Amino acid sequence: MMSFLEQILGDMKNEVSGLMMYSCCPPFSEIFGYTACRQLSQMFLAVLFFHSSEYVLVAAIHGRSSVNLSSLLISKAYVFAMMFALLEYVVEIALFPGLKEYWWISNLGLVMVIIGEITRKLAIVTAGQAFTHLIKVNHEEQHNLITHGVYRFVRHPSYTGFLIWSVGTQIMLCNPISTIGFAIVVWRFFAQRIPYEEFFLRQFFGSEYEEYASKTPSGIPFVK
């Protein structure tokens, strides 16, 4: 009788321990289920398409020799940011899986990724030879002032597109920390870059650029 009771108590103890372990540390298959597979797949495809299409377009316009990692906005800081975003996602889906189940937020991020991608690529195609990743400090013959197409609405549509795209990738992952971090870092980068770039544009195009800038927003919030 005692051995029978001991066996029952032992089984109950094992089941309680198992439930506690499951609640604290869900199985790997539970962590990386449908939600994670879909969201991470969308993220990897978005990054892959963004940079590969960027390379193809710019290489077609300027030649392959003019394209490198830094000009495609791939830097150590960029890689670090993406790795941090991935780490945040893994930690949050393991500890707070419900946080990733807000599909209306994730789908909003996906829409932002698509809009940002289209906006940036339209900017590149519209500018053609005038588009460069690196700021030109000397006026070249093929560098014309582009004010038609998507440039009618904002002065720096490629920056607008990248800002929307980058923040959208993190909203798509339901990453609250990285969403705020990406928004601040990318905005600050362009807020510093635009005045420096436009200093030379004003030198190149004079009153023509002044008139264009006076009636067309920069495309980055709070940057004149």
TrEMBL record:
Q: Name one GO biological process term.
A: methylation
Q: How is the cofactor bound here?
A: Divalent metal cations. Probably Zn(2+).
What InterPro entries would the database entry show? ICMT_MeTrfase, PPMT_MeTrfase
Q: Name any one GO molecular function.
A: protein C-terminal S-isoprenylcysteine carboxyl O-methyltransferase activity
Q: What reaction(s) does this enzyme catalyze?
A: [protein]-C-terminal S-[(2E,6E)-farnesyl]-L-cysteine + S-adenosyl-L-methionine = [protein]-C-terminal S-[(2E,6E)-farnesyl]-L-cysteine methyl ester + S-adenosyl-L-homocysteine
Any one cellular component term from GO for this entry?
Answer: endoplasmic reticulum membrane
Q: What is its EC number?
A: 2.1.1.100
Chief place where the protein resides: endoplasmic reticulum
Q: Classify the source by domain of life.
A: Eukaryota
Annotated compartments: Endoplasmic reticulum membrane; Membrane
Family statement: Belongs to the class VI-like SAM-binding methyltransferase superfamily. Isoprenylcysteine carboxyl methyltransferase family.
The name on file for this protein is Protein-S-isoprenylcysteine O-methyltransferase
Species annotation: Salix viminalis
Q: What is the lineage of its organism?
A: Eukaryota, Viridiplantae, Streptophyta, Embryophyta, Tracheophyta
